[in-house]
Every structure is written in C-alpha cells, then in structure tokens.
Amino acid sequence: MNSRLKETIEALIFVSQDPLSLERMQVLLEGVPGEDIRAAVDELAGDYSAGDRGIHIVRGGGGYLFATKPAFDRDVRRLLQIERKNKLTSASLETLAAIAYHQPVTQSEISAIRGVDSTYTLKTLLEKKLIKIVGRKKAPGNPLVYRTSEQFLLYLGLNSLDELPSEEEMSRILQEEKPADA
Amino acid sequence: MNSRLKETIEALIFVSQDPLSLERMQVLLEGVPGEDIRAAVDELAGDYSAGDRGIHIVRGGGGYLFATKPAFDRDVRRLLQIERKNKLTSASLETLAAIAYHQPVTQSEISAIRGVDSTYTLKTLLEKKLIKIVGRKKAPGNPLVYRTSEQFLLYLGLNSLDELPSEEEMSRILQEEKPADA
Amino acid sequence: MTEGPALPQDPVEPPMDAVPAAGPSDGYQVRLEIFEGPLDLLLFLIRKKKIDIHDIPIAAITRHYLEYLGKKEQINLDREAEFLFVAALLIYIKSQMLLPRETDLAEQDDPRRVLVNRLLEYQKIKAACSLLREKEEDQLLQWKRHFLPPLPGESDLDVVELSLFELAESFFVLMKRRAADSTRIIRGRDVTIEVKMKELVGLLRERRMIDFLEYFTAHESLEEALVSFFCVLELVKTRVAVAVQDELFQTIRVWLRKDPPRQVAHE
Q1: Does B165 touch chain C (CB under 8 A)?
Q2: Touching B: which chains, 3+ CB pairs < 8 A?
Q3: Is residue C227 part of a domain?
Q4: How many A/C residue pairs have CB atoms within 8 Å?
Q5: In sequence order, what are the residues at sequence separation of 6 or more whose Cβ sits closer than 8 angstroms to the Cβ of residue A172?
Q6: Which ipTM did the prediction report?
Q7: Is the pTM of this model over 0.80?
Q8: C170 with B97: Cβ contact below 8 A
Q9: Least Cα separation, residue A30 to chain B (angstroms)
Q10: Among 3.40.50.150, 3.40.50.261, 1.10.10.10, 3.40.50.720, what is the CATH number of B5-80?
C-alpha cells in the first residue's frame, strides 16, 4: 500500500467542503488507478474506526467526509453550545419521504400522497435545503417540481437514493406493526 | 494515559471553528486536571505528526487546530479550486438574489434586505462579474448603484430579467402559514 | 373548552410519531393532532379494527371515521377541513357502492380501489419514515465540520455554476425570513347556509362547473369555507348537483344536474 496515497486522501477528505467522491479523487489524483484509491480510502477509514479516535470517516452524500464519533455528541454540543440537534417534525419527515420516493414531484402531488396540504412543510424543507426546486412541470399552472437535495442524502447518511429503505424493509416494518392484540 | 480523554479532545479540536485553547478545554472537560489535558493534547499531536498522516494538529491563534500537512498543499489547492469554482457561497447567492429582484439597488439597501452587511459579498460578486456598477444614486452620500450583469443572465440561461421567477410564483410558495402542518 | 369525556390518564399529547394508544373501554381517546392527516387516521382505524386493507368494509370504516371525528376534543380548524374532506370522499365511495349504477360508468371498477392504492402508498411512506428516523438519529450524533479550514492565500475564482431555481429559492427564503415578522390578520364574515347555498347555486349556473378545491380554498375564513363545504354535500345529497373526481384527493368538480328536483332550488 502506497502510504503517500493514503495521506493525500486523508488531507483531501479533511479539507473538502462536500463529501469527497471516489470519482473526484480520481480526477485529482490523475494517473492513480481507481482500485488503488478505493483500497487506500478503505484502509484509511478502517484506521479511524478501529483505533481509539474521536473522529472517523463516514460515507454519505455520495462521498467521504470526517465526522466526530457518536460517543462524543455531548462534549461537542457543550463546545458548540448547542442544546441538541432538532429532529425533523414528523410532518417534515413524511413530506421528505414522499418526495424521496416520488421525485420529481409537485406540491399538489405531495399533498395528495399525504392527504394533507403540504405547502408549509415544503417551505420548511426548502429552507433547510433538504429539497430543491428543479424546474416546472408542463401541466396546467406550470407547477414547480421538487427533488431531494445532496444535503438530504448527507443528512440521513445515505450515499444515493438507491440506499433509501427498500420495499422489503418497509414491508418488514409493516409486518412488525400489525397489532397482535386488539 | 486516559485514551478516552485523548479521543474527546480530538473530536473537540476537529469541530471547533476557532483554535481550541487549553483553557477552553479545561472548562469543557470540567474536573479533568490541566496537566492531564495538556499531556493528552501533546500525545495526540505527536500521533499525528509521527505517523504517515495527511493532517496534523498545529498550534496557532492561542489554541490547537487541525490542518493539512504542507506536503499536500498542491493537492489541496487543486481540490478547492475545483470545488469553489462550482459554487457560490450562500451569502453570495443571497446577495445576488436580492440584487436581481430589487435592482437598481445600493449597498445599504441590499444590506437592509439581508439584515447583514454585504460589502464584502458585493466585492466578490463584482469580481466574478455577476453584477456591475451602473451609477450613483442621487441621495445623501451618492451611493453606488448595482445591477446584475449580462454574464448573470448568461449563467442562468435567461434572455432577460423578465424570465426570473415572478412575484406570483414566489408568493405561491410563500403563502399561507400553516403551522399545524409544520 | 375541553368537554369531551377526557380520560384522566391521557393528559399529555403522545409523541407525534407514535401510534396512538387505545384507551381503556372501547374508546380511542386520542386527539386529532397526533395524526398526520386523514390517511393516518384511516390507517389507524384499519389496524385497530383489524380490517383487511384490501377489502375495506366502507360503510363500517366511514362510520368509525365519523364517530372518531365526533369524539375529538380539541381540533385545529385548518386541519379539520382535511379530515372532513376525506369524510366526504368516504361517503362518496359508499354511495357509489350502494347505489345501482348507470351502466356506462366503468362498472368493473371497485370504487374503493383508488382509496386502497392511496392507503397502501401512504402506509409505505409511513414505514419508510420510521426507518429514516433511525438513520436521522444516528446521524445527529455525529458532527461534521461546517466551516472551511483556513487556507493560505486566495486564488482567483472566475467561473461559477448558477441555477435559476437556486437563485430564486434564496430569494424566497430571504423574503420569507423578513415576512415572518409581519402578522396576518384573518377576518371572516358571518355567513349562513342559506346565503351560501344561493351563492353556490348561482355560481354553478353561471359557470356550469366549479373546481371545488379551488372554490373551497378561496374562502377568507375556514368557517365560511366549511359552510360552503356542507352546502356542496347538501346539493349532492339532494341530487341537485353532481360531484365527480378524476383522482382521489385531487379535486372535485361540481356541476348542476340538468333536471334538478324542483323543490330544492334556492331561489
């Protein structure tokens, strides 16, 4: 293993503002074979997760980035003087899920899926940049069309939309929820 | 050596936006003797500088912070150049939006709209040639007046400013606060 | 203002994402607020009554649903409209199933099919939500850096990529932040069923057809909107008007029958 390669990648992931993808690394490290890069990244991530470390490398948003380990959440919050990170409201999460599975999608389509007017929630999600407007639908009124953003993937620690919970996972949940009693 | 302490400090230095001072650490890690903290920081810094690492802990600005090692300066610059090229900061984007919709407009008007001093962002946008100075306002101090540039339209693929999303389209998104659905 | 038979052990609102617990006796003494919407309530009832979602006894579920709405202690009027809207749809489906149909209306179609499809889809979204919630909780414990590490010197940056919608979005958000301060006062006018009925029939005569959702949401106050909602129900019930929907939860188009029974003409 070329340790210089691993070091370079460590520096790059550290400094990158967005999750650093393997493709981007390959462009930057021209001439280095893709599998070498991949191996170096894996080894680097392994070093961090195995050792007694306060930070590690996580995958999300289609790339790699540094994050603090969960165990230090309390300490970090003290430093940053943040009470605790707010979870999304269930309305927001529901709207987000509806968009994630049906994108590209319009406001009225989302509202129809939820059975609830979702204008306000959409606004909130736009502000949080978890969704984005990607254009207009060629339909009466030319409604705006929404998609989930890169930030959304990162927020949930997903690499791509393919990693959204699958049909099987969902039906497993539904199976569990079936009440045994009355 | 308490390895948990070292890990915690690693996480704290990583997330801290400013160099993290020993004093600050001591406040955060209440009860931990100063010399233990000091020893943990030294050991942590030693780990990074000794190993084959792309990043290390440096002292500066009255505290400790992570930085990439100088050897990777070239790689890092390449990465950032690509990344930054692709992106306007959200401050720039916000300022640009304020100008686009309110032009012709002065610096103090923009700052008022954003609620934030926008002098620096204006400079950046001028450098990127996304806005231009079109004259001075006949008002106390004769402030400069800004407009978006041809380049701005070009980037957005617009033929004219009339093609910007309209007030009505905006208000459709902004309308109707429905906190019940938040 | 709380006058329902509130149970002593149910003083606090359960967490938003919890499945509402049934109280003792047969009553489900939960508040409407804990449901994300009418579909959520429907799913709750289906589960609670051990109903096969693929074969919903529509008359029974409609009764449970209405019973439920009647039991609510405290409701948010904005949300109630959505619950009532679905109540109307249930009644509509029920009537479709009960009444002998004219032959030319797609007879092979089970009127419940669209509702079931929606419920199944919504159920999937709910299941996905609980999985996504776990992921969220996991991520919230890990902190990423949101600042750029300091760099020596700035290079010249000329090119940018800019999206129209990104730009517009920023502006919306900016304006919204400002608008947050200003309060909006909603004033409604008192309106009686009679007046509204007259207005509605007049409108139907004039325009021949109205988009009900559009009409509904154009009202200044919810109270007024609800009155008109009941007027439409009344008109449909008395067979003065016909309401048709292309897709469930989309909108309902209402128009007058060509030969309305004379006695209901509010003129």
Answers
A1: yes
A2: A, C
A3: yes
A4: 144
A5: none
A6: 0.71
A7: no
A8: yes
A9: 11
A10: 1.10.10.10
